[in-house]
Every structure is written in C-alpha cells, then in structure tokens.
Amino acid sequence: MQQGIMELMWRSSHVSGANAHYVEALFEQYLDDPGAVPDEWRSYFDELPRPEGGASEDVPLSPVRDQFYQLGQETRPGGAVPDSDAGKKQVKVLQLINAYRFRGHQKANIDPLGLRDPTPVPDLDLSFHQLSKDDLDTEFQTGSFFLGMDKAPLRDIVDALERTYCRSIGCEVMHIVDTEEKRWLQRRFESVRSAPKFSDDARRHVLERLSAAEGLENYLAAKYPGTKRFGLEGGETFIPMMDELIQRAGGYGAKEIVIGMAHRGRLNLLINILGKNPTDLIDEFDGKKVFDRGSGDVKYHQGFSSNVMSPGGEVHLALSFNPSHLEIVAPVVVGSVRARQDRRQDPGGEKVLPINIHGDASFAGQGVVMETFQMSQTRAYRTGGTVHVVINNQIGFTMSHPLDARSTEYCTDIAKMVQAPIFHVNGDDPDAVIHATQVALDYRQQFKKDVVIDLVCYRRRGHNEADEPSGTQPMMYAKIKDHPSARALYVERLVKQGVVDEDDISAMVEKYREDLMAGNHVANALVQKPNESLFVNWQPYIGHEWTGYADTTFDMQRLQLLAERMCTIPEGLVVQRQVEKVYADRRKMQAGELAINWGFGETLAYATLLDQGHPVRITGQDSGRGTFSHRHAVVHNQEDGSTCVPLQNISDGQPSFTIHDSFLSEEAVLAFEYGYATTAPNDLVIWEAQFGDFSNGAQVMIDQFISSGETKWGRLCGLTMLLPHGYEGQGPEHSSARLERFLQLCAENNMQVCVPTTPAQIFHLLRRQVIRPLRKPLVVMTPKSLLRHKEAISNLDDLANGEFHMVMPDQAELTPNAVTRVVLCAGKVYYDLAAWRVENERYDTAIIRIEQLYPFAREALRDVLNVYPNIEDIVWCQEEPLNQGAWYSSQHHMRAVADMLRDGLGGKLKFAGRLASAAPAAGYMSVHTEQQRRLVEDAFNL
C-alpha cells in the first residue's frame, strides 16, 4: 500500500480496525458508482485485487474488511482506537447524496396541477440515514456531488440537493449502467442546480414562443368554437421546447430533422414551428379540398416539410404523416432518418436527427414503443439516438387514474429498458423545460443514444374541443378551471424580474394576432427560399400512371459476370458444408450447366440492380440465410465466426447492399422499412417475414400506411414485402400469409399483390419494382417448397431476355382446339395441378397462372384465354379455404374476362378449393393431404 494513502487514511480518522463498517459501506458505494466516493478512496479501491475473471461488483467484502482491519492495526499509534462517529456519519452523508440522485424525482415539483399523489420518500429524510438537525452545521466531504468545494456544511449540501433534484425537474439517470454517462448527466444538473441562468434575450424569446402557442389556440377557439383541433392548451411550453431542440440541433450541424407525433398540438407545431401558412389551415377548417387526388385526411394527421435557419445553417424539417394510431409513427420516423443518414453517409447521426413526440397513455400502453426502443442500438436500425418528448397530459382519453393507465410509477418507465435518461419537467416552468431540452439533446449528441423528456402538463379542454371533460374528471377539471396558463405564470415571473414590461407583452400578443389575421407565416426562423439540395428528390417518380410493364432485360455477358462475382468467396474463409453446396451449384448455374433455382434467380436480381446503381436493403428475422435456407447472402466463416457478403463486392463504387437479420419484431420493423422506403425512392427496400402469417403482427402498418398512404397523403412508397405462403401441411399458423386481407385492401391501383412461381418471375418482378419509375408497395407471396422444386426452374435466357408475366400461359404442348376447360390458379398449387394432369392424361384442360392478382391484368388474361376457342368451363383453383385466398376479391375480374370471350361464360366460373374455415389450414398432415388431393381433383372434374 502506498504510504501516502495510509497516512491520509489515518489523518482523516476514517480508517481503523474499529471503522470496518464505514469502509464496507464506502466500498459498497464505490461498487455502485465509482464516481460517488472521494478520489483518494477511488484510487485505492481501483487497486484492490479482483477474483480471477470476476467483475468489480463481485469482489467479496470480507477480504476488504480484513484488509482494512489489518491496516488499522498497523497504522494507529499505540494501538489506540480513534472515535469513529464522524466516519460513520460521513458515509451516511454520501448515502444521502446518492438517495437524492436515485429518488429525488419522486419528491420533485413536476405536476403543474398538484394532482400527483405524494409518494413518501423516507430515503430523503435525515433520520433515515441516522443524521439529525444537530448535524446541519457540521462539515462533510461532498464526494462526487458537484458543490464547488470538497467539504461543506450538511445544511448547504441538503439545500443544493433539494434545488437540484426536487424542484421543477425530476431526473431519472441512476438506472444507467455506464458510469461515464451517469457522471456526465449528474454534472450537467448539479453544476447549475438544475436552474441555469438564461439571458434576458433568451427568456424574452421563450415568452414570444409561448405567446405564439397560446395565441394560435385562442384564435382558433374564438373562430371555430367546439370544432375538433386537439389543441395544445395546458402544454404550450412544448412550442418553445421544440424551437430550442431544432435550433440547438442546427448549431450542432444537423441538416435534417424528422418529427413524428400524434394529433395533440400538431396544428400548433405546424403553424408556429414548421411554418405552415395560417391561411392554409383556415381553409382546412373551412372544409376546402386541398388534395387533388385520393381521399385526403383530416388536418391533424397531415405531414409537412419546410426549412428553417439555425446557428449552424439551414435545417430541413419533416413532420411525418400519422393516422390516429398514435405511437405507430415512431418507427416510421426512425426508418426515414436512417435512410437520410445512409444517403448522407452519416452513420453517427450527426446530420440527421429523429424527434418522436408521444402521449403519456399511449407511450406506456402501446407495444410498438417498446419495439422502437429495442431497435435503437441494433445494427440494422440505429440512428444515433432519438429525442423522445412525452406530452404528458396525465390522462388517457377519459381515463385519468394512473392505476388504470399503467402498472408503473411513470408512463416513461418503459424507456429504462434501454437505459435512456428520463427528465420529468414541470410544463409550467419554461426555464426548466429549456434546460432539460438542452441537456437531452447534448446527451444524444455526446453518447448517440435515446433520451426522454417527460413534459408534465394537462389538457385544458379535454380530449377534444367537443368534449365536456368534467363529466369524467370532475376533480382534475375543477383545478384546471382556476389554473393560470404557463404563459401567464411566466409573464408574472419575468415582470417581477424586470425582464419585460406590460408594453412588451401587449406588443407580442398584438403582432402575433395581426400576422395570423393577415395570413403571414409565424414561424420566426422559416426560410422563404429553401435550399432544395436538402430535400429528397421525388420528382422523377411523380405523375406516372399504372403500368405493369418495364424493360427488365439484362445483357447476358454482364449477367454471367455478376453471377460469377456473387458466387465468389474469399480464400481462407471456411464455408459450412451445405452452404458450400449452394455456392457450388450456383457456379454451375452461372455457367449454364444447371437449371436456375429460386435462390439464384432472386439473388441475381439484387446483383443486377446494384450494378445499375440501385441500393438494396433487406431485413427480416432470417434474411441473411433465408428462413428456408435458400438465400445465403451472408456466408459465415466456420473457424472464427466472421462473415462475408459477396453482393457487397460485385463492382467498384457500387451502391450499398444492406442485409440484416432483424430482432423479433414485425410491427416496428415493417414500420421502419416503410419509413425508409418513403425516403429512398431509388432503393429496393425489402421486408421479409419469417412466415407470411407473421405480417399479422404489423397489420396497423399495412392498413394505415402501406395500403392507404398514397390516397390519404399523396405519399409514394416502393416498399416490397416478401411473405412465404403455401399449403404444405405446416398447420394453421405457417401456411397462409393471409392473401385475402391484402386483396381486400386493394383499390385505385394502390399496391401490387403478386404470386410468382418461377425464378425468372421473381428476378423480373424485383427488377421491375425499381427500374419502372412508378412507386407502389409490392406484396409478394413467396414460396417455401418451390424453393427447391424440380419443376420450379428457369434458365439464363429467361433472366437475360425475359420479363415479368402478370399472367403465365400454359407451358404444356396442348392442342388449343381440344381444350374445353381452363383452370385458373396462383402459386404452388399450379405444380400440383400440372402433375395431376400428366398422371391422368387430361390434356383437354389448360392451366393458367395469374401471377399478379392486383392490379388484375384483365387484358393479359383475355389474350391468354383467346388461344383456346372452345372453352366450356372455367375453374378457379386455390389451396386456401373458400372464405380466404383470392376467390372473393378476384372472381369478379375473372368473370368479366370470361364474358369478354363469350357472353355468359363468366357465369360458369366454378370454385375448387378447401371448404370455408375459421382457421387458415388443417393442423394434421393426413387431413391436409386429403384436402389437397380433393381440391386438385375438383379442379378437373367439377
């Protein structure tokens, strides 16, 4: 032991054999937070021996106690035992400091209405730590608590702790494991007692923004009384908060900020921050049509974009469109941000910032919030941290009691799962709100992680302006009725402090109202002539009418060269045996020695798109390998676990090929990829379900974004969904991708639903999705057993010189005049039908595959059917039960085409398939096999 340290221990009277309990407590403090003990103790504890391979928290206390006992015996003069009372109290003071850091937020004044049930916090009482008022004038070491001095009277320490942790900001940071992050946050709050001194100009600016927030709500309330607008009254400090976030982010060098929020306060944000013209909002209130095509949407779901000026230059703001499904927009936002970061080559998130704004009840209640937090640090989805703002109205719709809203103390407790710091702040204290906002953004920039601001406020007018909230919350609204606004309270404070006078206040209010009445922009940093280079250029993709055709041919020599490169694995990489067989076969396919299977055709489509300058992004729960081991785009070294992705190395300067196995989420991951695709029109963006039925877990995204985003918001999206689908006896949950649900959502050429059955078809379908300038979501029912079916093959010429056939003619050599029956089908059942026909020599029947079920290719089907002049019967055959699959949604198309051939022929259309069923498929192989046999026979014999 260093002699200096031992002398220091002795002089302080903190160490002797009689003070073992003090040492033990101090050591426990060190294990919890090394920064919480004085430097000289930390240095000593750092040098203590550790059990071999053990972490610091695993150090047994008994050897430490014995070591200090021995040290005390060696260092005390004459064996005398000094008084240990001071040492014990010193430990208690350090424990008191830590108690404030852990639990001060429970005592903090964060509720403007004072409705928060007071939680007894015994840890914050002196008596809990065996301290008393008699100790208030005694000096103690402050440890790591930032007080500006190493020692101070207990009275000053407690006063500083109260001001830091128990006033308008309640800090929750002690759940963070990383000591550096925790100490950084403690220093930011403790150094200014959570109340920095802002300049008079800064505070006048905050007042001006508060006046704008309140001014808009007052104006709309007077002009449109009782009309829904989901106003911001009670949470007006949200506007100066957002203003500070954006300006500070711009100062850091951010070029784009993407914002997601539900409807409360959205109109205020649009007008006062993003700079939407008030005249346009008034037109929407007056019911004027502002969207030329499609259904449009209510005004508080609309998105918007603009540019504002910041200390660091121009910043592009994008407010995402959002339906009433509240939190679902959160992963859409981070997906859009990731696309922008990838475009800017900004992996650290320095230039593009996501801000997600939540409601308290939905933040606690909706699982997509947890999923979005869980993705925040994963390789496929990280964005350098999201700033989360909870507009905490302390009420969910008409439910106000926390016991009904959640099972946790705070609505924000879900954020602790990723160790995000949480700042609860009183919405009636704008200075505290600005400070919490600054620290939150600085933390995100410093550590590249999520952070949460819990803006505790209230709803002055209830859930919406047509409600009478006192009917369900009489006590809350009795308080709200007499509660002054945040602006009124701030005005009173600033007048007392001489920052503003009555003339200043009147001028602010009057100018804002004049600007509103005149239809002037009221976002004070708005750029009137924005820098368009900050935008995503969608111009080449706008205004195209539906077409099913695109030239997807590809030069044969170049195709073979790309195939060779995508089959090249670096020397020394030890490949697993089955994977080596996959790549060996692909090399034969490239040389024309072996027929092309699905995995080769699909992967070669990606190679050709990359070669033509289109980035490709694929995520899903087994995307690297493919759920059914058909893709193997990621090759794993069997010796060291390293990976190789051949598609990332097919040419110099190629665009990115990104493929990640996602975490086990459907809703958040699909939402992320939708957000990505709406921001990256030149990319092929794919989400692949492990099994097609797993898309059920993302139904909100399919219903409210993918299928209807264009008609509601004019939002184009080329997202592709690969959904394994097919009846192979795997039971109800792994047979059907619920084709019927997608077809039910189809109208106005809103999306494509395809069921390709050959490698060439998937090759051209994926290429068509990007090469054609039309941007529509693509839903693909992909196969399982067909991935290796001996008949589901193509050749190189099919790929190089073919196209995607929306309707596939019969491939058999039939005599057209002899055909009297046509069986129409889609997907895997074609191969069962074709095998039955050969086995039973039924060459009077043609089998035609409809590979694109929507938009339904009527003309293409008519052209194929015209080959057969003697058709008497038409049968639709499907594997799915009668009430599922394509039958109900597509039969009218088939009947219409049949009637084009001969009047009345459409009326003869028959159905062959499983009986109507509540479940998608049978759970027993024997039942499945019998059903499959019967439906195939019915197709020929009905």
Automatic annotation (TrEMBL):
Biological process annotations from GO: glycolytic process; tricarboxylic acid cycle
Catalytic activity field: N(6)-[(R)-lipoyl]-L-lysyl-[protein] + 2-oxoglutarate + H(+) = N(6)-[(R)-S(8)-succinyldihydrolipoyl]-L-lysyl-[protein] + CO2
GO cellular component, one term: oxoglutarate dehydrogenase complex
Record-annotated Transketolase-like pyrimidine-binding domain positions: 596-789
Cofactor section: thiamine diphosphate
Entry EC number(s): 1.2.4.2
InterPro entries registered for this protein in UniProt: 2-oxogl_dehyd_N, 2oxoglutarate_DH_E1, DH_E1, KGD_C_sf, ODO-1/KGD_C, THDP-binding, Transketolase-like_Pyr-bd
Signal peptide: none
Keywords in alphabetical order: Glycolysis, Oxidoreductase, Thiamine pyrophosphate
Molecular function in Gene Ontology: oxoglutarate dehydrogenase (succinyl-transferring) activity; thiamine pyrophosphate binding
Enzyme class per UniProt: oxidoreductase
Family in the record: Belongs to the alpha-ketoglutarate dehydrogenase family.
Subunit description: Homodimer. Part of the 2-oxoglutarate dehydrogenase (OGDH) complex composed of E1 (2-oxoglutarate dehydrogenase), E2 (dihydrolipoamide succinyltransferase) and E3 (dihydrolipoamide dehydrogenase); the complex contains multiple copies of the three enzymatic components (E1, E2 and E3).
Function as written in the Swiss-Prot or TrEMBL entry: E1 component of the 2-oxoglutarate dehydrogenase (OGDH) complex which catalyzes the decarboxylation of 2-oxoglutarate, the first step in the conversion of 2-oxoglutarate to succinyl-CoA and CO(2).
PANTHER family: 2-OXOADIPATE DEHYDROGENASE COMPLEX COMPONENT E1, 2-OXOGLUTARATE DEHYDROGENASE
Name listed for the protein in its UniProt record: 2-oxoglutarate dehydrogenase E1 component
UniProt organism field: Vreelandella subglaciescola
